[in-house]
Amino acid sequence: MRAALVATALSLLLLETRALLSGRAEWLRAERATDEAERVMHLRRAARWRAPLSPYPLRALDRLRAIARGQRDPARALLAWEGIRGALLGTRVLGVPHPALLREANENIAALRGGMRGGEAYLRQLEALERPRGTSPGATILALAGLAAWVSGGFTLPRRRRIGRVLLIAGLPLFALGVWLS
């Protein structure tokens, strides 16, 4: 049991470190970028490296928002707003991290694509952008529970064969089902 806890803690530490270092690297690439499209791309990547202790995703989202609001060229503003939207939707697990910012991005994308706010084209664009897509929270929880059962079964197997086998046999199909449903 102690070995499983140590392995879990080390795995989480490695994941946190990877997210922190990768987010920082993308942030620095964005800072050095001379082209606006390249800067937006790196900021979007930095925003996707979410982890509990990393400051870079929020900084990147703030910078993308400033770029989008400060643009006079609609195509460049659209690129920045789509960067925000993509980063937020790309990092959702059980929900979107900043729903108000996603709503703002959707409204601005709809306005830039569909024209005047409140118009028919704008409303169609906004409806399409806000249509829920992607993973469901239930499928995510099922996949995570299956993965946890499968991994803990591997750790339990040497000491308690029957429980270990049950966890291994049940965990993998639950994980696969959760991934398939998501």
Indicate how many domains the architecture comprises. Answer: 2
Q: How far do the termini sit from each other? A: 31 Å
Poorly predicted runs: none
Estimated helix fraction: over 70%
What is the average of the pLDDT values?
86
Structure summary, number of beta strands: 0
Tell me the overall shape. Answer: elongated
Spatial extent as radius of gyration: 21 Å
Structural class: mainly alpha
Q: Biggest sheet, in brief?
A: none
Strand-and-helix sequence, N→C? HHHHHHHH
What is the number of helices?
Answer: 8
* Oligomeric state as shown: single chain
Strand portion, in percent?
under 5%
Explain the layout of strands and helices.
Blueprint: H1 2-32, H2 36-48, H3 56-70, H4 74-90, H5 99-114, H6 120-130, H7 137-156, H8 161-181
Helix pairs in contact: 1-2, 2-3, 2-4, 3-4, 4-5, 5-6, 7-8
In short:
The protein has 182 residues and is an all-alpha fold. The protein has helices at residues 2-32, 36-48, 56-70, 74-90, 99-114, 120-130, 137-156, 161-181.
Give a verbal description of the structure:
The chain is an all-alpha fold. The chain folds into 2 domains: 2-130; 137-181. The protein has 8 helices and no strands. Helix 1 (2-32) runs antiparallel to helix 2, helix 4 runs antiparallel to helix 5 (99-114) and helix 5 runs antiparallel to helix 6. The two termini are 31 Å apart. The model has no long low-confidence stretch (mean pLDDT 86).
